[in-house]
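From the thread on structure requests for the teaching lab: each student submitted one protein with a one-line request. Submission from student K.M.:

"Model Putative PEP-CTERM system TPR-repeat lipoprotein from Luteitalea pratensis, tokens only."
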Amino acid sequence: MMPQSLILLAGVVTLGVVLTAQPTSSPRDVRERAWQANNLGVAYLEQFNYAKAATQFEAALTIDAAFVPARVNLAIARMYEPDLPAAVKAATAAAEASSAPPHATFVLGLIARSENREEDALAAFRRVLQADPDDVASLVNLGQLLLQRRAYAEAVPVFGKAVELEPYNVSALYNLAVAQTRAGQRELGAATTAKFQVLRETGYGTTYSNTYMEQGRYAEAILSTGAEADVAPTPTALTYATAGLAFGSGTSSTVIAAGDLDHDGHSDYLVVTDAGFDAYVNTGAAPRRLRSASWPLPAAFAPRGAIVADTDNDGKADVLLHGRGGIALWRQKAGASGTAIDFEDVTARTGIMTALDVRTAALVDLDHDGDTDLVIGGANRIDGSPAPLAAWRNNGDGTFADISANALPAQEPLVALALIPTDVDMRRDIDLLVLGEDGRIRLWRNMRDASFREVSTTVGLDALPPAATIAVGDATKDGFPDIAVSARTGSSVLAVGASNNRFTARPFDALAAGALAAQMVDADNDGLLDVVTLAADGVRVARQAAGGAFEDITGRTGLTNAERRTPNADVSAVVSAKAEDRLVRRSLGEGGLPTPDALVLLDADLSGSMDIVTVRAGKATLHLAGGVATPGFHVALTGQVSNRGGIGAKVEMRAGSLWQKLETSAASPAAAPADILFGLGTRPAVDVVRVLWPAGIVQAEPIGADTQKKRSLEVVELDRKPSSCPYLYSWNGERFEFVTDFLGGGEMGYQVSPGVYSTPDPEEFVRIRADQLRARDGRYELRVTNELEETLFLDHLSLVAIDHPAGTDVYPREGLVSSPAAGLQVETLRERRPVQRVIDASGRDATANAARTDRTFVDGLPLLPVRGYAKPHGMTLDLGAATPSRGAVLLLTGWTDYAFSSDNIAASHAGHALHPPSLQVRNGNGEWQTVIEEIGVPVGRPQTIVVDLTDRFLSASREVRIATSMRVYWDQVEIATRYAECGNAECGSVESVGKSGQSPGRADDGRARSPWAPKRVARRRPSPAQGVDDNHIVVTRVPASSATLGWRGFSEMTSPREPLTFDYSRVTAISPWKQMPGRYTREGDVGALLQAVDDQFVVSRPGDEVSLAFEATALPTLRAGWTRTFLLHGDGYSKEMDINSASPDQAWPLPSHRMTRYPAPSSWPEPAWFTRYNTRIVGRQVPRLAGVPPGRLVRRSPGAGGSLGEGELR
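Reply posted by the TA:
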């Protein structure tokens, strides 16, 4: 069975549709169930299943007839269904409600536009703008209506305001250019047109279209977040019990940090003094010191902060210290007993050197290569003057490289006080917020080319008041991070982030000015983020209430001047006052060395609520939270593909009507709580937790009963390959059988090394045995499925049949090489047999492993820690003394555990390189000598590589060696002999179908070519049928008689390990992947798009299937004593979502056989066929975490036709 975490992407697994309210339900319970039914409708709507969505919204209205959001959403679903009369009825009823949001009026405006009722549409959009003057979609619609009326001068300021609000809005910018030009402002129009073209080519812009999720926020369904007044819980009586906190015997603390030192899922304490540091394990009671002696620090180090995080991906938390003396890194190792934790100073080994008095530091995967890099800031150590930030890249081998000049160019020196890594624009890469001593907040945006660009002014940060301190989190629950700004003086603000990449300041009266430190945290476990600050008069709490309002509740929590009131309080007395929390503690004492003020948040007593540790003037104080009605839900992360601590992950939780998102980080001062803890309010259980890992893997975990009881979940990142290439299934007479995946050479945007991209080879001939393809009702049937996280561009598919004498075998010459040979080349072979002996890379006999294709692979590879990489190694073959010097052919069947773009970046930092498989033979001195530099990389799972051994031997030895540094796993190794003489000099090279050669060397654009990156080749249109008779083979091409695109879903994996195989008959409609927003080919007949290699593509999204049929009668009668082998001729490209690949965020732009690199300039005009065929829209990479029932596998009868409807939930 497919693991649940794979088959559930979005959803509430315990949700059922409740059609009637229970008699004893409170109004809040009724509304909670209405929200749950509504959220399930939103899930269907975001899968474009409008009819089922409407049914769910009607169910919500049955539960609660006065529920306005469900009525608004019903109008949206009916509009897109389309059932415009029903949509108008629902929208009108919603708009008449006193609590109506702008959505209803906006929908009425869209419908009026579609029906050419200009006056009604103008009036509707103007009413929306009265309620929300800054709604860009309404401004664009209003401006377009004015353009229709030729009111060009009136339209210019409307579009101008839209562009001012959303500088990245392509639709607004384009229409502004049109309005300016037609209003006679030709120079302005030309300048705006140039801006539009630049923005469109960046891929950064947003656009509007006539499909769901593409018409503005008020045309998107309303989904609950838990901040709504009708479901927000009654405020709890949050209280804190306070005590002085000391560690060990009289140890005073200069710095305290928290992190999971012993890998038990809970945060522990790191206590730093001028003399050294100590580690204390959090037991829920008194912290336990790990050893009696401190780990020492140099006398002049003067620590200012610390971070607990895994820096070397060994699964153990290390310690990074920063201060006046710069940086110190201590690596965790096993103690002398083999069980105790110990640390060793590896600072000198890392190569990190700095002249900074380091006042802030952050460990963050800047380049998304799977390990944490280091960013530091502060002041000049000598005179305290401003200094640039510094960035150090983790090389993955224990060393770091200074990349400051390239990563953070053109810096203005500053005295940096805080670094907060966060994904500001939600593009999956980590940006950097920096607070300076001058009070300015700077944003460095990740440009995905190993560099950052300072864009503070562009995003509106320069308009904020000078900040004393800041806290970052998604307070407004819109998915984008917000910034709570404690002003130096005057009024504080909440800078609200949004999809327009700009921050908007809102008053934040509950946040005191002049705070010393701050963090966003759900202090009272109600599911809403609050702000906790350390101020001059102590700890303060600004609690968020329903609707987004904040209130300073400090005076009701017992925190006011608490540190002065109870400086010597015994923690055991505090705990006894919290008997309801069933805690046991002993006195922890206090300390008193001068220290920077600090705020640390963690679940100190393991009670399920967030406690507060402060450090002031060398004294640590613990504030234990109490009065929380329901313990929170704890999540711990372990990365496998991402950095092992999961630093930079986005973690979402859905519990009924409640949704919350937290982001992990490792920074000093701390930017977020040390523990991931979700408050639930009064909701009894969590439905699902979803993690978007830094590596891009989306992983949803439905929460079962046992996990609910523990109220804790450890999420181990799924080590799965999100992309490969399309899968091929063939009808074998009984069922559709998995053959292989193919078109791996057509991968676009693959980064081989920093700044070097491969050039795709989109053509492949896939071998299909005769027993794998049987005619059914006079037709041969194939299925090509897109089941991974990639967009597929199919240009051509046809069937090639090769008839040949029985007792012979035919193989195409395939495999990924840097310079593909021209034309389809096949080898006709006889006497195929196992080789005499196989020795694997470790020197072990693997002859039995290589005897047959049975998934028992020749192994012993010396793997490197980077995915896809191994140390140079070889597989040695003894072919047997009788092997002739001419006519012998080696057949190698296997698969490649390949590296992704991010893996190649990581490998380059450590000095690793990929060397493709080469052929070596023994020379006259018995030494290995390379005679073929590239035999080909198997890109299918499996694929057979054909190696011609004619005239390759340099001595009497018949030993050969396959040498490589790639992870290639050979399943079967055979030797064969060419068939009898034929009409071609190279027997079996029978025809050139759709290929012409190109000289090897450098790419057309002058870029250095990867040693194994595929070279682009020119193409011509294949003729519909070609036959060749060289006395030993007959080749016939058969075009598809039908080709149909449909959304099907995802097949069940049947293999427990790579290479994966699949059961076509078992399918789920729930996607485990992200998907690229964009326009995809509409479902239905796509035969015209696949006839020829002509750059007219079937653009396929994950879950799609192309069903192919070929007429058996188009083939000649098989000669007596002959047999038949099939080839699928495919031509196409694919692109995946690895963050270091080119253009990983959207389906556009299209590829072309004319391109010299991808992406090609988007200034190429949109072709007419694309406009006609590509009407299916995907609006989001990841759907909102709404309400989705269990996604279970569906068993089909063998050969059942058709496919699941898009988004159909079985």
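TA comment: Confidence is low (pLDDT under 50) at residues 1-23, 562-594, 981-1030, 1188-1210. The first helix runs from residue 4 to 7.
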